Amino acid sequence: MLYVTERCVFRLTPDGLTLIEIAPGIDLEKDVLAHIGFTPIIDGEPKLMDERLFRDEPMGLKDDLLTVPLDARFTYDADRNIFFINMEGVSVYTAADAEAIVAEIAKRLAAVGKKVPVVVNYDNFYLGPDLADTYTSAVRSLAERYYDSVTRYTTSSFMRLKLSGHLTERGLTAHIYDSHQEALDRLSNTDNETAAQR
User: Which of 49, 56, 93, 148 has the most other CB atoms within 10 Å of its CB?
Assistant: First the structure.
């Protein structure tokens, strides 16, 4: 959980609130610490908040979000033992696109060294109509080799319907959730159900 203010950003950690970012031009002692009724954790020099936040013109976030490099779209959270796949804004037009995505995911999951729960973000995802078989077959192969369980989500009802159909045809879990939180909640419930059956 993050607490974002106009002067700084805190992250809630098991040890308390950690000050992780500070606004450009702000004096940490005079402009922040002197005005709060607690002592935050400060681990090294806080990072500067993006200065675009403080300008009047558009920040250009659309360009940033849609140009996330492939290798930055996959994250393993070791503390929670969850692998996150961010397909937001990705367009798969060719078999080579699909192969590159699958190869990168396989490389990352192989490095984890065990099957793990996976959460996939399909917001604003586009899959070329002639690639449904190629892509979903590759997803099935990944699931069999590396996924302990998986939840998927997208805010687009059209994409939920479309992906559900492709996944069902391949014998994969077809329910796609509306939000990141719903997907995480379902993953947690699945883990609890599995633990109760053991």
Answer: 49
Tokens 């106009």, located at residue: 6
Q: Residue 39: exposed, middle, or buried by beta-carbon count in 10 A (0-12, 13-18, 19+)?
A: exposed
What is the full DSSP assignment across 32-77?
A: IGGG-SS--B--SSPEEPPGGGGSSS---HHHHHHT--GGGSEEEE
Number of H helices, E strands in the chain: 5, 11
pLDDT 10s digits, 110-144: 999 999 999 999 988 888 888 888 888 888 899 99
The string of pLDDT tens digits covering residues 154-190 is: 888 877 777 777 777 767 666 788 888 888 888 776 5
Task: Give the phi and the psi of residue 47 in degrees, each rounded to 5.
Answer: -70, 150
Q: Rounded to the nearest 5°, which phi and psi values hold at 34? A: -70, -15
Q: How far is CA 158 from CA 75, 84, 103, 161, 172, in A?
A: 26, 22, 27, 5, 19
Which of these ranges, 6-10, 57-61, 71-75, 78-82, has the smallest mean pLDDT? 57-61
